[in-house]
Amino acid sequence: MKNTIYVLVLLMIMSCKNEKKTTDVDFESNVPSKTYTFEKLDKVELYAGSLIRVDSFPSKYITPRPVDIWLPKDYTRDKKYSVLYMHDGQMLFDSTTSWNKQEWKVDEWATKLMEEEKVQDFIVVAIHNIPSIRWQDLFPEKAINYIDGSVKDSLADIAGKKNIKLNGDNYLRFIVEELKPQIDFAYPVHTDREHTFVMGSSMGGLMSMYAISEYPEVFGGAACLSTHWVGAMPMEKNPYPEAIFKYMETNLPEADEHKLYFDYGNKTLDQHYPQYAPRVDEILKAKGYTDKDSKNLFFEDTDHSENSWNKRLDQPLIFLLGNDLD
Asked: What CA–CA distances, in Å, run from 249 to 111, 146, 206, 296?
């Protein structure tokens, strides 16, 4: 009983705090929880804005990991923000802390595009990956059902390991059932589909496609950069691409209420993707998508890297979050 009263009082206090007018972040207004808090990162190199982190976001579905929330420099509780969920969160904002010293420059592009009023006001929720299980988390799990049973047992994951244990469905449950409700509670954001988006590259591109297919009522748009259509390591007689496309043919949401962005280059790992572009176009057309609500863009002489993605990041951001949605 005492605990219940304590939580109710805490919620009332937080509600009062949220009504305050502020041009900065009130970092004490956290989701009431004894297991984690949102904390501002002071030692981070950003172009603009603030980065908030839950160091180990608890989950009953996936291995706990850091989750970052990027807030624009003029963040205020007096307005509503759209939300962009992104995978591989440790690669998005600060190249000094990434494994390859590259970054997406999300904060730079987001700041410039919002200042130019080319996109809606939005925040970014960045889910870190765990390298050793990234493939298992990000592969579109139900696509495996479109591979013949006699072939499944011989398949290996992206690291060449057998006995594949996929966790993509649980990864999405984490986002939709555990993470999104906390973001919706803690920040002044739009909670509807029309203002909720998902983006990633490579395996994160596959997962973004999977997210909007599995939860079309949650996500209004998905951006999939250098989507890893080969599914695992490139190989001869690869069963993964066909399985992924069959899944898309069955499950990709119909047009009119969603936006889908795909792109690809032709260098390094991206060299394996152009061959699949016509199939992607066919699926989009069959689902009723046009140039107004879908893109499948080719970027000549671009490779599979954060440096390539950050050079064209304005395109998916404007496509998904363009002010025409307001």
From this structure: 36, 11, 14, 16
